[in-house]
Every structure is written in C-alpha cells, then in structure tokens.
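Help! Submission page says 'invalid entity' but I think these are all valid:
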Amino acid sequence: MIKTESGGEATLAALAMGCCCSTESSDGSDAGDTNERTALLSEQQRLTGSGESGADPPAEAAPRAGDARARGDGETLLDGILHDMAASVIDVAAVDTPNMEQHDYVERCRQYSSALARLSAPPPPALAFQDVPPPLAQRLLSEPPARPDDVRRARQTAERLLEAVQAIQVTPGESLVIPFGQTTGSEP
Amino acid sequence: MPAFEDAKKYLENILNGDHGVEGIAIHDKDGCCIVKVSTPACPESAMGVKYLSAFSVLSDQAAKMNMEKNKKIFHMYSKHQVVQFRLDPVILTVVAAASANTGYLSSLDVTLEPLLQRLQPLVRPH
C-alpha cells in the first residue's frame, strides 16, 4: 500500500492502471486488441530490422492491408538485395558449369552452317523483272503482233472491271456509332 | 564492305599470312562455332566447346571489377597465346604461336569487321 499526498491510500495495481498503460510494448497488446494507440510503425520497423529488441509482434495489431503491403515491400527489398549481390559477386567456379547439351549443340551448329551457306550463296534472282536473253528476245519480237480485235476486247474488259471495282459501296444497315451510355432498346 | 565468296577462305588467307596465327574461330557465347579454321599446329583444346564457352563467363566476371565492360582477354601460355574479343553477340577467338605479334592479333577485330558484321545477325539470343 502506498500513501498519497492527499492522505489516501492506493495500491500499486491502481497506479499501474492509471499511469503505466500507454507503452508500445505493453502486455495488453498480446491479447490482440486494436485501439487508437496501436502502433503501425512498429510493424515496418520490425521488418526492416530496426525494431525494438525482445518485442514480440502482436498477433493482429496492424490492419490486414498494411500488413500485406509491408510484407510485399520487404520481399521486394530482399529480392533487390539478392540480385545486387549476385551481380557483384565474382564466382570463378561458374566456369565449370556445363551450359548446353550435346544434341542442342549439334542442332545449333547445323543451323549456323546452313545460315552461313545461304550467306555465301549468290543472291536469288529477282522475280519481278528478269533480263530476257537475246535469242529469246529476238524470237518474241519476231512473232506477229496481237490482233486489234483482241486488244480492243482486252481493253473493254479492263474498263468494265475498273467500273465494277469503283461501284463497290458499303451501305450500313444501322448506326455504327452509338453514344456512350445509351443502348438500342434498354434502359442504361 | 568488300565482297567475299566464302568466309572460311577469307579467314584462311589470314592463317596463311605468316603472322603466326594458328586458328581463328567465330562463335557464340555457348561455344558453338559459326566458322572455324585452324592449322595442324593449333591445339584442339583451344578450339573446343569447353574452352570457347568459358570466355563469356570470364568476361562477365571481369566486368565486375569496376572497370566497366570487358572487351578483350589475352591468354599467354608457354607455347601459344589466345586472344578473345567480345563482339556481342559473337565472340572472336584467335590462337597463335607464343612468338606471334600480339599487337597484330589485338587488331584482328578491326581487320575482320566486315565479316563479323555479316555474321552477327546469324546469332540469335538463346
């Protein structure tokens, strides 16, 4: 029992309840109660390694979304650290690691040799225009010209085909552009 | 870019040029040769897959020395010397006698640049 200034008596338990309940590592958080004094920063500090020593993480102290976000950030940070370390570490033993299997090696060598053969081959002849050798050119030029009736019939056919192509039109049956938010027959 | 009929003949001209060059190989990072020529004096192990594929690993490790990207590596042995050039995506490996002119060997990437430019599109990233 402790005597106060006013002369009353108070117990230690009563003093604890009035003065010592607002700490981050208080025992009351172990019960899982979330209140306005629940610290959100403590969860992040614990993940980054600068948390308070000896403090057990509360079971359901932080909100679920913040907990998942902090865990994702921690994993990303850890992945970045591992990646940087792997990029900077000089691993001499990696030279002995076999990279390719035998059949892959043979297949790739075959591809390279065929590609090299194509590279060394003369270029293929142009398909659109080709030089006519002189004997063939003479034979073609010495043949009688086309008859005027055939030329006229070919020209008329070409003109009719051109008119038919130009007469092609698209006639839409219904409006192609519908204002946003409105449908054809139902309420939005 | 000069025209040439055969890449092998182009490289064999260098082999026969009395510079001490014993073997030339143009390959990818896994050691698969696109074109390779060698003389009987060239050691077979220097043209093998295991030796050729080691360069890419060595070059990657050498790039971690805080001297930026590795471009060439010179291997000096008692009877031979090997010069390897990193010309992504191809690698040029030149094997020569120990008495060969290393300065000439180190400039072979410039000499073979027309050929290398034509061969680089053949190598796809695997």
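Support: the input was valid. A stray whitespace character was the problem, and the output above is from the cleaned input. Residues 6-16, 18-31, 50-59 of chain A have pLDDT under 50 and may be disordered.
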